[in-house]
Amino acid sequence: MNERKKICRMCETEFIATPWRGTYPAFCPTCQDIRQKRPSIIVERELLFGPIIVKIESLPSPWEEFQARNRDLPCYKITVKGKEFGASWRGRIDIFAPEPWEPGDIVEFSEIESVHLVRYEKSYRPTIYGGKVLVKSKRSLESDEGEVELERRRYIRLDPVPEGAKVPDKLPKLVWSVASYKSTLKGLGRQYRYKHVGCPIWSASIHGAVRSGRKGAEGVLAIVDIEHPLKVECVFDS
Question: How many domains does the chain have?
Answer without folding.
Answer: 2
